[in-house]
Amino acid sequence: MTADQRLRTVLITGASAGLGEALALTCAQKGWRLALGARRVDRIEDVARRAREAGAEVYAGRLDVTDEDSVERFFDESEAALGVADIVVNNAGLSKPGILHERATADIRREVETNLLGVLFVSRRGVAALVENEMRGDIVFMGSDAATVPRPGQVTYSATKGALETLCTSLSRELEGTGVRVIRLRIGPTMSEFGAEWDLSPQALEERTELFRRFGTRDARHLGTLMQADDIAQAILFAVGRPPGVVIDTIDIYPEAPLGNAVKGLR
Ligand SMILES: NC(=O)c1ccc[n+]([C@@H]2O[C@H](COP(=O)([O-])OP(=O)(O)OC[C@H]3O[C@@H](n4cnc5c(N)ncnc54)[C@H](OP(=O)(O)O)[C@@H]3O)[C@@H](O)[C@H]2O)c1
Questions:
Q1: What is the three-class DSSP state of 142?
Q2: How many other C-beta atoms can be found within 10 angstroms of the C-beta atom of residue 157?
Q3: Pocket test for ligand 1, best of 71, 165, 192, 222 (most atoms within 8 A of CB)
Q4: Closest Cα to atom 1 of ligand 1
Q5: 194 lines ligand 1 (CB under 6 A)
Q6: CA-based Rg of the chain, rounded to a whole angstrom?
Q7: Top-confidence residue, 109 or 222
Q8: Separation of 255 CA from ligand 1 center, angstroms?
Q9: Ligand 1 closest atom vs CA 185
Q10: With the C-alpha atoms ordered 191, 145, 230, 193, is the resulting torsion angle positive or negative?
Q11: Mean pLDDT (whole number) for 58-77
């Protein structure tokens, strides 16, 4: 398969940490233009500085995907600086584990607004710019294996990532014939700041592991092995790098089980 060598303009939400930061720095090394947004301005400026040092042209700004005005302003300003983004990565997302009937309203609302409403605001604006300008492009969605293996203790998160699945299927149909491709990832556990707000005490970890065990959701993805953020960046680069005429619809990516974990005696 031939790689697509075009110079791309990549807009990444939540580029101040984790997977978004890694993707930004990998794209910078390719010399692609970057529009980087997140709420923590100091962090996004730091990622922008490193991307510029790697040779990229960068627009960096404050972005809160849950705020429609913030999304519009971010797109307007990045387009004025770099032109229309032909890769839009819906990366901003969060999860705070907890049993649904014990969760605070604010936590539930924050997860739904960030992981779902924000994705709709960003995708709407990103797609509009591409379609109105008759440009080819890619809209990338950072989904989760929680959509296919819904987990107890992450009801809201699993629901938002499940909804993302339907969103991607529906949107890809809507965009048929426009040259805009929808690329969905279902990502397993990956090193990032995702769990920064989680209770990681031995007791909390044991309780979560017990839930995974009880509901049979503790497989290779939850054996303590983690992927690196760059593994996800490389998967995205592969998908967006396919030439026109080819669509990578879904990428399931999760950690390989540790060696020595093989099922014995079934040959
Ligand atoms: N890591 C994993 O194991 C894993 C697995 C499956 C799926 N994912 C998905 O991958 C994506 C990235 O997660 P990550 O692991 O890289 O997490 P992370 O290290 O916590 O980074 C999340 C990013 O989202 C940004 N963000 C949060 N709320 C935002 C908002 N309202 N507006 C704009 N930016 C916002 C954060 O920046 P600010 O705080 O500066 O705004 C941060 O840059 C998420 O969608 C997540 O669901 C991750």
A1: strand
A2: 23
A3: 192
A4: 190
A5: yes
A6: 19
A7: 109
A8: 19
A9: 7
A10: negative
A11: 98
Q: How far is the CA of 14 from the centre of ligand 1 (A)?
A: 6
Positive or negative torsion for Cα 7, 184, 49, 191: negative
Q: Are 33 and 7 in contact (CB under 8 A)?
A: yes
Does residue 156's CB lie within 6 angstroms of at least one atom of ligand 1?
no
pTM summary value: 0.95
Is residue 267 predicted with pLDDT exceeding 60? no
pLDDT cut 90: percent of the chain above it = 76
Taking residues 32-41, what's their average pLDDT? 98
Burial of 213 (0-12, 13-18, 19+ CB in 10 A): exposed
The domains found in the chain, sorted by start residue, are 9-252 (3.40.50.720)
- Burial profile 179-211: b = 16 or more Cβ within 10 angstroms, e = fewer: ebbbbbbbbbbbbbeeeeeeeeeeeeeeebeeb
**pLDDT tens column, 178-187:** 999 999 999 9
Flag whether pLDDT at 89 surpasses 80. yes
* Residue among 74, 121, 141, 157 flagged as catalytic: 157
Of the ranges 77-81, 197-201, 224-228, which one carries the lowest mean pLDDT score? Answer: 197-201
In angstroms, the CA 254 to CA 20 distance is 17
- Average pLDDT rounded to a whole number, residues 124-152: 95
- CA 187 to ligand 1: nearest atom: 6
Give the bridge partners for 12, in sequence order: 36, 89
Q: Quick check: is 157 catalytic?
A: yes
- Which pLDDT belongs to residue 220? 64
Q: How far is the CA of 115 from the centre of ligand 1 (A)?
A: 9
